[in-house]
Input
Amino acid sequence: MLTAPTPASVATLSNAGLMLMVQSARSNLRRVLNHPAFTPERRQKAEDLISKSTDAAQLMKWKALAIAESEKWEDTQLEKEARELGPAAHPNYLY
Output
């Protein structure tokens, strides 16, 4: 026979769900920060904030900002590499 959940059991499940979201957001942000755009020093400073934050929405905002920064870094790297290219090794080959 099924019984209605008690307020305490609902609160426990709700808290568990929130903590799962926070843990997932932390993990995702840490993976993004593992990009070469971020120095070990910046990762350490970020880790201090990440480990203290209990707001999944804030962690996801930080992740979005980190992704944007890593994309900008990659674009800069690609532009730099394109400027450094010398003459083609095989001029008749269309790259």
About this structure: The mean pLDDT is 87. The two ends are 70 Å apart (CA to CA). The longest helix spans residues 56-84.
